[in-house]
Amino acid sequence: MFGIKNKPVAGIFLSFFFCFVGSGIAEEIPAQKLLERVDENLWANTKFVTGRLIIDNGRKVRTLTQDSWMEGTTRSYSHYKSPAREKGTKMLKIGGKLWMYTPRTDRKILIAGHLLRQSMLGSDLSYEDMMEDHKLSYSYSATFSTQSSEDFAGARILNLVARDKKTTYQTRKAWIDPEKQIVLKEERFAKSGKLLKRILFEDYEKIGTRLFPRTMVFRDMLKENTKTTYKFDVIEFDIEIPAKYFSQSILKR
């Protein structure tokens, strides 16, 4: 009789326990720690990428191919291989400066000031977006949003507030898979709160110890019917990169 009487109590206790664990699993990791783990998936000491920028301006679609070498968050070099109009174009980022070389003019220019806000090669990315290529957990403070995720079941939404007033996007939202610890979607806002950019992270694949998105889809929300899809065809992490790749001399013909 004793066991029979207590059986419902045990059942209620277990139901409560599993309900608590199931609903609280995302809360076990603080928002900032979750953002750090997302960064760990995306970042390495060095990285080499061969990719395609597929630019759809609503009227026509064109594809740019490029090779890129990256060291940490402060140095990167990109060399565009096609189409013919952009072939030979090079971009070099060192710290807070961005240089661009075009074979048509046979000269390099420093992209600065208002030029950073212009569209990069007609895409949905600005030159400023290239300069914003950094770890979110270093630049933003994260808190969990109370907003529910309609796009991705089980995802948690992080509200991100910039630590530095000079950061291009002062606020962002990031949709995170708390179990895989990967970003699914990101929105970037102006100081006024106006939505400027939306990015989808797709086709995640295991590469070494990381889950990495093979596809990123960028939309400039100030334009109509445009999108830029970045396809990563080759990704290599923690490779040795010669010093010449991060010298201004590499921008010469």
Summarize the structure.
This protein is of the alpha+beta class.
Tags for this model:
13-stranded antiparallel beta sheet; 17% helix; outer membrane lipoprotein receptor (LolB), chain A; alpha+beta; single chain
What would your notes on this structure say?
The chain has helices spanning 2-24, 31-42, 127-131, 136-139; strands at 46-56, 61-71, 75-82, 90-94, 97-102, 107-111, 140-144, 156-162, 171-177, 182-189, 195-207, 210-220, 227-237. It is α+β, with helices and mostly antiparallel strands and 253 residues long. The protein has one domain: outer membrane lipoprotein receptor (LolB), chain A. A 13-stranded antiparallel beta sheet has the order 6-5-4-3-2-1-13-12-11-10-9-8-7.
Major β-sheet, in short? 13 strands, antiparallel
| Unreliable parts | 1-27
CATH topology: outer membrane lipoprotein receptor (LolB), chain A
- Give the neighbour order of strands across the main sheet: 6-5-4-3-2-1-13-12-11-10-9-8-7
Query: Taking all residues together, what is the mean pLDDT?
Result: 87
- Helix tally equals 4
Basic shape? globular
Q: Helix amount, in percent? A: 10-25%
Oligomer: single chain
